[in-house]
Amino acid sequence: MCEECGCGETGHLHAHDHAHPHPHPHDHAQAPPASGARQRVIEVERNILTQNDAAAAANRAWLQARGITALNLISAPGTGKTLLLERTLERLAGTIPCAVIAGDQQTDNDARRLRGKGAPVIQIETLSACHLDAPRVGHALEDVVTPETRLVFIENVGNLVCPSAFDLGEAFKVALLSVTEGEDKPVKYPALFSQAPVAVMTKTDLLPYLDFDLARCRGALRAVRPGVFVFELSARTGDGLDAWIDYLATLVP
Amino acid sequence: MHELSVAVALVQQAEDALTPAVRRVTRVGIAVGVLSGVDPEALRMAFPAAAEGTRLAGASLAVRLIAAQTRCAACGDTTTPDVPYFICGACGSAEITIAAGRELLLERLECEEDGIDAGARMPEDARSDAGTTGAGDV
C-alpha cells in the first residue's frame, strides 16, 4: 500500500516527497471530494467474517444439542484424507455411527469412494471456492446427520491455507500431512497448524523410501502447536490406525 | 484465493455499517492478524472486484497488521512469539494459548456524505466508474 497517498497501489519504490497530482503512473481510482460532499469517518470494529462465524456458532450449537462431535479435516491435496476416512468408516461401522461431509471444488469422487461403508455421505462441490464455509456446512449437516449420528467428519477442500480462516462449527480442526510433504510443513503453514490440537502424519508406509525425519516433523508440529496430539499412520497398511480409531472412540460420549 | 470470499464479506459488513447519507467510501481501514490465514496483498487484489457496484467502489484499503501474542499459563505473561514458534517469550514455557493474531476486523470507513450543494457533484459523478455512486444514496 502506498501509505503516503493511500492509493492502494503496492510495490511503490518511489519516494513520496511530491504533492498531488502524482507524476508517476498509477491511477487514482478515487477522485478528489466533490465540493458538496462532507467527509465523515465511521468507526466500525466488526469482525469481517461475522456471517460465517454466526453460522459456525449455530452449527456448533446444533451439533452440541445432538451430542455430536464434528471434526474439520484439513490438509493439502493428496495427503490421503479420503483413504484415511475410508478405513476409518470401515473400522467404526457398527460401533460409532458416523456421517461425512466431503468438500471438493468439483466432482463427487470422494463421496462415491466413501459411500457403502455404513455412514451417510454428502458431497459439497465448492466450484470456484477453495474452502468450505459454515453456511454450506450447516445445510449439509441437516441433510447428512441422522438421529443416530455421533461423529461427523468434515473433509475440507484440499488446501492448507484457505480453510484455516473459516470456522465451520466443528469441535476442532485436525491437520494432516503426509510424509512425502516435508518435515517443516507445520512451521511453513502456522495459520492452520497452530489451530489444530490434533495432527495426523499419513503414508508412513513410504518412510523406507524417503529421507523424511519423523522426529523433526514432530518437533515442528509441537513448535507451532505445543501439546498437539500426533498420530502417525498408514491407511494403506493399517499401521498406526488402531491408535487413531481408539482416540476417535474417546471423542464420543 | 479465499481472500475474494473475505473481500465480499468485508464489503457486506461495510455496507451494513453505512448510513444512507454516505455517498461513497474513500478508504476502508481493516486489521488483519498474522495468523488469520488471510494474505493482505491477495485481499487487496480481490477487494476492487468485491467493491464494484457498491458505495465502496474505488475506495483504498488500509491494512493494519496485528502481531501474534501468546498468553502463558505458567508465568502469566503475554508476549509476542517468534512465529511460527509458539513458546512464552518470558519463561520459555510451551504452555501457551494464542491471545492475538487471528483477527480479521473492519475498523473504520472514511466516507463522503451528501452535502448541501448537491449540484456541485454532478460532473464528478459522471466521470466516476459505473456503479461507484448513485446506488442507495440521495
Plain-language structure description:
The complex is a heterodimer of chains A (253) and B (138). Chain A has helices at 50-65, 81-92, 109-114, 134-144, 185-188, 190-193, 214-224, 241-250, and strands spanning 38-47, 69-74, 98-104, 121-125, 151-155, 172-178, 198-202, 229-232. By secondary structure, chain A is α/β, with parallel strands linked by helices. Chain A has a seven-stranded parallel sheet, sandwiched between helices. In chain A, helix 7 (214-224) links the parallel strand 7 and strand 8 (229-232). The longest helix of chain A has 16 residues, at 50-65. Mean pLDDT of chain A is 88; it is low at 1-29. Chain B has 138 residues and is an alpha+beta fold. Chain B contains three helices and six strands; from the N terminus they run H-E-H-E-E-E-E-E-H. Chain B has helices at 3-17, 40-51, 122-127, and strands at residues 22-33, 60-66, 69-72, 78-79, 96-100, 104-113. Residues 117-138 of chain B have low confidence and may be disordered. The interface between A and B is large, with 53 and 64 residues. Strand 1 of chain A pairs antiparallel with strand 6 (104-113) of chain B, so a sheet runs across the interface.
Main attributes?
heterodimer, A: 253 residues, alpha/beta, seven-stranded parallel β-sheet, 8 helices, 8 strands, disordered N terminus, B: 138 residues, alpha+beta, three-stranded mixed β-sheet, three-stranded antiparallel β-sheet, 3 helices, 6 strands, disordered C terminus
